[in-house]
Every structure is written in C-alpha cells, then in structure tokens.
Write a structure and sequence with these properties.
2 copies of one chain form a homodimer. By secondary structure, chain A is mainly alpha-helical. The first copy, chain A, is built from 5 helices and 2 strands, in the order ααααββα. The first copy, chain A, binds a DNA duplex through helix 4.
Chain lengths: 101, 101
DNA sequence: ACATTACGCAAGTGACTGATTGCATGTCAA
DNA sequence: TTGACATGCAATCAGTCACTTGCGTAATGT
C-alpha cells in the first residue's frame, strides 16, 4: 500500500506507466526506447530496470517471461484505494492501516 | 503536478490528510495531537510543520490565518488528475506534460 | 508590561534514492 | 558451438529527504 505512493513519486516511473497505458505488453528495451522517443529521457537500461522493479513491488506493473524477453503490463488496481481514501470521503472512522516510521 | 506525488510519498503526510478529512479547520497543534492520538506518531511540531509546507505547495492543503492560529483545510482537487491519468485510460495521445530530471 | 502561546526560519545530520559501472546469467540464431 | 542479444545482480556515489536543534516573531492572556 505504502509502496504505491513511493513508486509514483518519481517522474520517470510515471512516464513508464504512461508508456504502458499506450501499449500493453512491452519488453524492457521497448520501455527504454519509448521513454527516449516521448520524453527525451536518456536513462540507462539498468536505471529503467530498477524503476520497473519498484513499480513491480508496488503491484503497478506485472511481468511474465517469454523466452529471453520480460513482458511488462500495467495494473491500475492499486490506484483505486487512493480514490476511496480521499476523493470519496466516507466520514466513517478512517483507516488506521499504516504505521509510519 | 509532480509535487502532488512527492507529497503523498510520505506516510506522515498521508496521515495528516486523513486527519483533515475527519475534521476540517485544524490548527497545527491540533494536527500534531491528532497524529499522536490516532497513529502514535510523536513527531515534533517542526517536523509536522515542514510536512504541512510540502502539502501546501502541492495544493493538497490550504491555509488561512486567524489571529495567531493557522487554519488548515484539505483540498482533494489535485488528486483528480491521478484518476484521469491512469484509472480512466483515454487512449487519446497521452500527456507530455512532464519533464523528468 | 510581561509571560505564554502558536508558529516561522534556517543550519546541520543521518538515512535513503536514483543513477552509474562492471560483470554475470540465460536465450536464441547461424 | 559460438557470438549476439535481453536481462539480472551488486557495489559505489552524489543528491535529496525527513528530522532535529536553536533561535526568532507575532498574537493573546493576566
């Protein structure tokens, strides 16, 4: 839950999600080249890979292996709680579901 | 726009927003004591103040002065673009509205 | 007036983050 | 099998972040 927000905190990761909404089923290199084409983002492959890992841990990106390729898909499900939490104020005793540092 | 995500990245700041949905019009000390009561969060006043500043810059919290008190209110408007961006995929040429580092 | 209350400003510190670098692993084609 | 391709793993480093510390300012109460 908390990971979702941290994942969204980085502009590069948000750009990756944008790219994945345009076209499902992308490999790592497709993500890289798309970032460069659309956002003039010249991040290295390793950097993008680490960003993808973060998105994956947050559940925003799901992956599967296809031969030597790693296929990435977006999953917007983890975003729904954001809406439920503040955009639709329930005014019934709100969550005590987090333990900050 | 980008500040909204950074603002939401911290659990303490999210707890502050939770508190503000429970009760509009809170002073800084009210926010502090509410954080401690609900989340056992014993952050200092200065720490909370800095968090509020971040939320304010992101537009998620609006303030006004009333004597020596600073009144805080939540503003969920900046959260709407999040929904529009990924939860309701438009599939019309998506945004090129950010310039990452 | 004077102390108290509520908050602001700014420097310093430890921890985390994003990016780079170098090498390793696994897959496929010729 | 050998080389090219797609990705994984891990250490390192500069920049950022959250928090503390200490002092300052303005409003209120007695």
């Amino acid at each position: 839950m908390a990971d979702v927000f941290k994942a969204l905190a980085d502009p590069t990761r948000r750009a990756i999600l944008d790219g994945l909404t345009e076209n499902e089923e992308q490999t790592l290199f497709e993500i890289c080249s798309r970032l460069y084409a659309k956002h003039q983002l010249s991040s290295s492959r390793q950097a993008i890979s680490q960003h993808v890992d973060v998105l994956e841990e947050a559940g925003l990106v799901e992956t599967s292996r296809r031969g030597r390729y790693k296929i990435h898909r977006i999953n917007t499900a983890p975003l729904q709680p954001i809406v439920d939490r503040w955009l639709i104020p329930t005014h019934t005793t709100p969550p005590d579901q987090e333990e900050p540092r």
